[in-house]
Design brief:
This protein is mainly β. Strand 5 and strand 6 form a beta hairpin. The protein is built from no helices and 11 strands. The termini are far apart.
Length: 119
């Protein structure tokens, strides 16, 4: 089992940057696929970025070129560097972990961290 704790959210002006962190507890962090999702008020939760155990990444079209997902297996942490932030990036951001032997839909979620982009 994995427990996830997100941090790094806050209020930022348009064009600014934030780095989110997701710290994982439990065994074998390095074998988990990790991802960041977000949910804006009144909208469905959506995938923002993902990273496999091998380091391959994928991004939503809306964040390509602005966001970067990375992981540090020595620190059991996954990051989301967010640059050139826009008001439409405002949402609660969630971290998710998926074990390679179980369905992704049964993955573990963190509690979320609020990101607000506003002047």
């Amino acid at each position: 089992q994995v427990q996830l704790v997100e941090s790094g959210g806050g209020l930022v002006q348009p064009g600014g940057s934030l780095r989110l962190s997701c710290a994982a507890s439990g065994r074998d962090f390095s074998i988990y696929a990790m991802a960041w999702y977000r949910q804006a008020p009144g909208k469905q939760r959506e995938l923002v970025a993902g990273i496999t155990s091998g380091g391959s990444t994928n991004y939503a079209d809306s964040v390509k070129g602005r966001f970067t997902i990375s992981r540090d297996n020595a620190k059991n942490t996954v990051y989301l560097q967010m640059n050139s932030l826009k008001p439409e990036d405002t949402a609660v951001y969630y971290c998710k972990a998926g074990h390679p032997t179980t369905d992704w839909n049964r993955g573990y979620w963190g509690q979320g961290t609020q990101v607000t982009v506003s002047s």
